[in-house]
Amino acid sequence: MINPEERFFSEGQSYFGPRENPITETHCNVWDWDQLRLIKVKGTAKLFPPQEDVEISILAQFADYLSPEVRAITVDDDGLLIGISTDPEEDDTFFIGYIPFSLCYSLADCPTIYFSQLQELDRLGPGVDLVSYHDQRVAFKFNPLGMPRRIQMSWKEMNLLSKLPPHPNIVPFDRIVLEDVESRVIGFTTKYIPGGTLANADPKRPFRFEWLQQLTQLVDFLNLELGIMHQDISPRNLLVHPETDKILLFDFDWAASGKECLLDGRDDVSSVVFTLYEIITNDMHFTSIPHWDRNIDMVQTIEWTCHRELDSDVSKFRKFLNEWIETRTDRAMERYLNAPKRLIWLDLPTPPDYSVPFELGWTKEGETIWQTGERSRRIALERGQYCFRWERPPQSRLLKKAKHSI
Description:
By secondary structure, the chain is α+β, with helices and mostly antiparallel strands.
């Protein structure tokens, strides 16, 4: 089940007047990762100050009880529900022109499966479900949000994973997932590894020295052989295989290939240092510091107080880590950019759907202004375009239904 703290996110507050005026009408669009839909929360500026995201806690009280047709709710200044709306005009969901598989030439050799063939078993996190097909369980990763950056990240990740050579420390790619009507690419699956991540692992289970060795070897392979920078190595993206007892890395949506998408302060060597520090000390306060404001000296120059079972002394871990860091400081960026086996793939194709014009508004003379490109789902539907719908019942309702059927 999705962590309640991760279930919702707000797109911010829109004020229809001065935000300083407490009676100014305010709209807040909140995305629900559980039901995969956008709900507008309406009230006043008194209840919804800028950037405080009060709307999330308010919607959380009602979300599981709202009809699928509800597009907006209105609350009073105490956060109490006073109205609901099913008007389609209230729906600000963005349209995603998912690419037909026939146009995804860089994915042409990948095995595929249709969405209808996947049976939902659990909702693991935002945009990740546990599903099954043909008696095997896999993790299904998808992007239901129309944000251009997220669309690009999803395209990059499925291309990268599908082209990575098999590696004992990387969760294997499985299939491309297509929607059933027009065979458009809506996500991908990877092998499912049970047991949870190192972020929620049993602290009494010893963290093994060989796992650090495996992780540093993997980072060298990604950075120096393939020219890939993961950029999000952390305990939450690391697993231990219950059968092989090897550490596994997953979640490549922030990864960079060469210079493209490189971010300040997110290099993998630094991430390994902070990851090991967090695992050993259980001190997570550095995770609250923006990556661009962090450097490894913050943890390298202090004592590490062990709050986790280890199979070796802390000094052994730190000695190995320091020696590895030294091997990576010589011509670090040059070696990364000149990786001999760099992975390449085609850019994300422009969705043909975005070439369909729609009415953006009118000139002073009353003439229609026509626009192409990105659009809301409401506009796409008005233009007769095909829209894949992600909406689903809340998991709590499904669990309750399953319980009563037993």
